[in-house]
Amino acid sequence: MSFYRKLVAVLVTCAVAVPAAAQVADLRSHTELRVCADPAAVPMSSADGSGFENKLAELLAAKLELPLAYTWFPQGPGFIRKTLRAGLCDVVMGYAQGDEMVQNTNHYYTSAYGIVTRKDSPLAQVDTLTDPALQDKPIGVVAGTPPATHLARAGLAKNMRGADLVVDRRIEDPIGDMLAQVKSGDLAAAVLWGPIAGPLVKHDPDLQFVPLLKEQTNPRLFFRITMGVRAEEQDWKRQLNSLIRRNQAEIDAILREAGVPLLDDYGKALKE
Fold first, then answer.
1. pLDDT digit string, tens, across residues 97-107
2. Is residue 272 situated within a structural domain?
3. Domain residue limits at 205
4. Is residue 270 part of a domain?
5. Whose CA is closest to 107, among 232, 222, 27?
6. What CATH number should be reported for the domain holding residue 63?
7. Solute-binding protein family 3/N-terminal domain spans which residues (predicted)?
8. Whose CB has fewer CB within 10 Å in the chain, the N or C terminal residue?
9. How many domains, in total, are found in the chain?
């Protein structure tokens, strides 16, 4: 191919690529903060605005001086494709770092799985899944989550009572059902994600949540939580990163008030 033909090919490629990139960038609204969210993912997000992710979105909207708008869709298959990637909204709150479905911002908190028991239970002091006290006890866990692997490795598979990982929370409430079973004694304990279990048991006089900070083997039980944006929107990601950095104290306050267990970045200790 001659130099001229190569140059034409490059120019044609650029001419095609630039509008495509511009089209993606133009998906973001500059007149409102558009959030993709599950309408029934209590205590994280709710259509009534009571979730702690709703409160975080309100904080961001206030700092951006924009009205807040939601696109509601149940989390599960198709959530990102039908909301964020469809251009109906511009940010997903509460996305685990490293998930390839979105581009992650910097993380704004770190949390972990933990064990829920009755406060008066013989298991109330348990803080590791290898504790012999868990043997032969019925333990609730969400199928397919990291603690299920740890429980099986500890020889507790026969005692696990699994709940489905992906459900429509508008219809089913497996976490709420599991907590009710711990409270009634039908389950001795439940091993659950801290940002869900912590807020749900915060004001319960009978239940407690203890984060699992001592597990030494993979899969890890702590995760850094980010906001998710479209892959091409670098400026938007940087803007959100700046908002996270400048407002971390207010973010922490909202999470603590909700009952979310906050850890250091390495998942080894509670955040001071």
1. 987 899 999 99
2. no
3. 112-211
4. no
5. 222
6. 3.40.190.10
7. 32-261
8. C
9. 3
The two tokens of residue 31 are 């007149």
Compute the 3-state secondary structure of the chain and give helix, strand, coil in percent, each to the nearest 5. 35, 20, 40
pLDDT over 60 (residue 25): no
- Give tens-digit pLDDT for 38-68: 999 999 999 999 999 999 999 999 999 999 9
Q: What is the distance between the alpha carbons of residues 126 and 116, in angstroms, rounded to a whole number?
A: 10
Q: What is the DSSP letter of 262?
A: P
pLDDT at 1 over 50: no
In this prediction, residues 171-184 reach a mean pLDDT of 94
Read off the tokens for 19: 């509008």
Cα angle 137-138-141, degrees, rounded to a multiple of 5:
125
| Both tokens assigned to 153 | 């490795």
Instruction: Please provide the distance, in angstroms rounded to a whole number, between the alpha carbons at the two ends of the chain.
Output: 64
In a shared domain, residues 139 and 199: yes
In angstroms, the CA 79 to CA 101 distance is 10
Q: Cα angle vertex 205, ends 200, 207, to 5°?
A: 55
pLDDT at position 208 over 90: yes
From start to end of the chain, where are the E strands?
A: 33-37, 40-41, 45-46, 68-72, 91-96, 103-104, 109-118, 139-142, 160-163, 189-193, 207-211, 222-229
Q: What is d(CA 115, CA 123) in angstroms, rounded to the nearest whole number?
A: 10
pTM above 0.85? yes
Q: Is the link from the previous residue into 219 a cis peptide, with omega within 30 of 0?
A: yes
Same domain? For 84 and 58 the reply is yes
Q: Domain check: are 191 and 231 in the same one? A: no
